[in-house]
Amino acid sequence: MQNMDYILTTDNLCKQYKHVKAVDSINLHIKKGDIYGFIGRNGAGKTTTLKMLSGLAKPTFGSFSIFGCSKSELASGGLFAKIGILIEEPGFYPDMSAYDNLRMKCILMGYNDAAYAHGLLDTVGLAGAARRKVKTFSMGMKQRLGIAMALVGDPEVLILDEPINGLDPQGIAEIRNTILKLNRENGKTIIISSHILEELSKIATHYGIIDSGKLIAELTPEELSGKCESRIVIKVYDMEAACNLLHSINIHKFNIIDANTIHVYEHIEDSCQINMALCKADIFVSSIWVEQAGLEEFFFNMTGGGKNA
Are 30 and 139 in contact (CB under 8 A)? Predict the structure, then answer.
């Protein structure tokens, strides 16, 4: 699928270790200006994919294109410098300050103006902690410093691997606000991986869902919301009688959740009539309501359900 709007695409991208395909023929389509949420369980292939896109791992076969350039063209043209990378945990000298850690990378990349490092710290909300030793930082502050280091050279694309993993709610909010700022104010295209769909849903403009190395869906937020189907939840005491009654009124798409709970997935608009039918049959209904399946439940269902995310 060729489209000039796409800043990054992959074509049957694979990574195989002996007999195990960590990434299996995936085709990503990421537009300029996207916040692309790359979602999958631990071990699904997210990090391996991002390492290949960053030039840190060699594909077994398949290819990818960034800025319309192949991997070899990116390397020969020095264009990997236009891609900022934070893969797994950022590495720092803990007894040095945030500023000194960042300043070292700036100098190594040819940015010698001291004000440049201060500007990056301000961008990620760490200007007030510039002289603090990194060993005193919270995990969220370390992740933001890692993002600042990924921003050296003003890359167009940021690749962030699980930047909210292990953070407390405040740390997650800080990273979320930083990502939104970089996207909305600085125009960065951001690829962010996570296994927490609920959190990605607060910032992502598009999603790719990966499971066991295979890309199983690419979705917009609207498409994702549409996949989270509504259902009627019915609480009853006589489960057998309730199920027989549902079948008798031509309702067959339902699941028994536990000894007293039924989820009905059809005739959602007819919950009142269903309740009346149950009552007329002398089947006591303790409660009945309509709800929409959550994002995490949809994710579990898409990736096999019940597996550890």
Answer: no
